[in-house]
Amino acid sequence: MDSYKADGDLPKFVAQKSGIILSETRECFDRLGKDLIEHHLLPAPPVDTVARYKKKKSYFPLYPDQLLKPDSVYSEFKVFHPGVYSELSLFVEAMEQDQTLGETKFRVKNFGVIANMVNEKKHDDVLEWREDKDEKVAMQANIGAFVFDKSSPNDNPFVRVVIPADAVTRKVPAYRFASNGLDVPELCLFAAFATPMLMDIFYDRWFSPTDRKVFQPEPPPIVTFGSRPL
After folding, report:
1. Angle (CA) 120 124 127, round 5°
2. Pairing label, strands 144-149, 136-141
3. Averaged pLDDT score across all residues of the chain
4. Using CA atoms, how far apart are residues 22 and 27, in angstroms rounded to an integer?
């Protein structure tokens, strides 16, 4: 969003950058699935399990069929590692019931939305969207530029915004994914923040510290706004 700093300029390469974020999120899940299979299933599996795993890519299960179908490698966890199978089942159930991730407001079903967008090659198809009735506001802060709805400056769960009374704002467009109308910054922020949280849940429970490199995110920034216009 730094491109909003200069009056008249708009963000560049929005489609490409958002597409990379969503595709990398999808890839994180498949890497997790690969680790679960190779660390907990393949060391002592039936011979046909190894053959099936090597024959086709086993995408991380996001839907019940991927756990229940007899020809799915993940169905083997029910017999050979019930704990992992139960964890995967709870995750799929959380997606189907539109639950949130822990005590956050992150909706678990968004992981499925992202996976479908990537699978259908719609994750980098972005539209510029302008609404006069509810204009977007752009303001410069101490760590960059932020964009939010004029009528709801605190709709971003990651930043608490207090706008000075004398602040001067300007209209800027929003960006939405063409396939489903979802807000681009909102979904990308979800991917960037919620994905590490979910990865930690699985890796902390099913892998030893020596099996993984623990990611330590930077602490949330303190954002302050001045009263000068962009």
Report:
1. 115
2. antiparallel
3. 76
4. 9
Cα distance between residue 81 and residue 160, in whole Å: 43
Q: Which is nearest to 74 in space by CA: 58, 87, 63?
A: 58
The least confident of 20-24, 28-32, 45-49 is: 45-49
Q: Are 84 and 174 in contact (CB under 8 A)?
A: no
The predicted model gives 148-162 an average pLDDT of 54
In SS3 terms, 95-151 reads as HHCCCECCCCCCECHHHHHHHHHHHCCCCCCEEEECCHHHCEEEEEECCEEEEEECC
- Neighbour-count burial of 51, counting CB atoms closer than 10 A to its CB (0-12 exposed, 13-18 middle, 19+ buried): exposed
Contact partners, residue 73, CB within 8 Å, separation at least 6: 37, 41, 49, 52, 53, 58
Q: What is the CA radius of gyration of the chain?
A: 21
Domain boundaries, the chain: 2-211
Closest by CA to 229, choosing from 117, 159, 139, 147, is 139
Q: Residue 63 belongs to what H/E stretch?
A: none
Q: How many distinct helices (H) and strands (E) make up the chain? A: 7, 5
Q: Which of 28-42, 162-176, 200-214 holds the top average pLDDT?
A: 28-42
Contact of 105 with 140, CB cutoff 8 Å: no
User: Is residue 99 scored above 90 in pLDDT?
Assistant: yes
